[in-house]
TrEMBL record:
Name of the protein this chain belongs to: DJ-1/PfpI/YhbO family deglycase/protease
Keywords: Hydrolase, Membrane, Protease, Transmembrane, Transmembrane helix
NCBIfam families linked to this entry: PfpI
Highest taxon in the source lineage: Bacteria
Gene3D superfamilies registered for this protein in UniProt: 3.40.50.880
Organism: Polyangium spumosum
InterPro entries: C56_PfpI-like, Class_I_gatase-like, DJ-1/PfpI
Membrane spanning stretches: 244-268
Family as reported in the entry's similarity comment: Belongs to the peptidase C56 family.
SUPFAM superfamilies reported in the protein's UniProt record: Class I glutamine amidotransferase-like
Domain DJ-1/PfpI stretches: 32-198
Length: 272
């Protein structure tokens, strides 16, 4: 095959590749701004996972909190990563955001629910009918804001009674939607919840509302989730082991570097 034949071959392959290429999928949250309401002690995986999914779809994420700086996350009962706060709740205006997300954690939502400014922010947001998502202990904040009466919700099973006493109907399900609020039980439901949250925030494929009748709460659990109990027992030991390994590695590196440091010191003394 001559040069002209080879050129024709590659040109044909290029045209075929162009014609068969799929157009880039449009990101569904471009131009949308999501407020993530969190405080020290938020559950790390429940913030970072959904926030990444929102970002991957082109959405803008702003973490709002009670104080400026960085707030610390938790892995059940072990301190984890920090995340920078974009604005304090006092500086934030509900009108600037298209959606609200409240992650869980045993500590963070309890701090948030005690703040009058947080409660007013949530009430103002709900009054607009904009989408609100909450997971695990996050619905605590919605209960204290007084927006759950007559609505269906799910959460971490341990706060079921608080939500029922706030006037909600509690459902033991992975994802529950009622009007402009979508909720989930905890980390075990993150894959399905994250997909539902993105769909809910786009408004293109919202989680269907159930025909809630009769309005009855799911019964209380007979025991805490076994996975949570195991995590609370073993995660501190894992963290201690990781810290010990880090110290050991530092010691080994230091010992290995001693001959080099001695050689450098001897060389410097000869030059002086």
């Amino acid at each position: 095959m001559g040069n002209s034949g080879t050129l024709a071959k590659y040109l044909a392959l290029g045209v075929a590749s162009f014609l068969s290429a799929k157009p880039a999928r449009r990101k569904r949250l471009v131009g949308r701004k999501v407020a993530v309401l969190a405080a020290d002690g938020f559950e790390q995986v429940e913030l970072f996972g959904p926030a990444k999914a929102i970002h991957d779809e082109g959405g803008e994420v702003e973490v709002l909190s009670l104080r400026p700086g960085k707030i610390v996350g938790m892995n059940v009962d072990v301190p984890g990563r920090r995340v920078r706060v974009a604005r304090t709740i006092r500086e934030a205006n509900p009108g600037e955001y298209d959606a609200l997300f409240v992650p869980g954690g045993f500590i963070g939502p309890d701090f948030l629910r005690q703040s009058q400014e947080v409660r007013e922010f949530v009430r103002a947001f709900d009054a607009t009918g904009k989408p609100i998502a909450a997971i695990c202990h996050g619905p605590w904040v919605l209960a204290s804001a007084g927006v759950l009466r007559g609505r269906h919700i799910t959460s971490w099973p341990g706060i079921r009674d608080d939500l029922v006493n706030a006037g909600a109907t509690w459902r033991d399900e992975a994802v529950v939607r009622d009007g402009n609020i979508i909720s989930s039980r905890g980390p075990q439901d993150l894959p399905v919840f994250t997909d539902a949250l993105v769909d809910f925030f786009t408004g293109t494929k919202p989680t269907p509302e159930r025909p809630w009748a009769p309005a009855a709460s799911s019964p209380q659990r007979s025991a805490p989730p076994a996975l949570a109990l195991a995590g609370a027992a073993h995660l501190p030991k894992v963290e201690q082991a990781r810290h010990a390994l880090g110290l050991t590695a530092a010691f080994v590196v230091g010992v290995a570097a001693l001959p080099v440091l001695r050689s450098l010191a001897a060389f410097a003394s000869r030059r002086s």
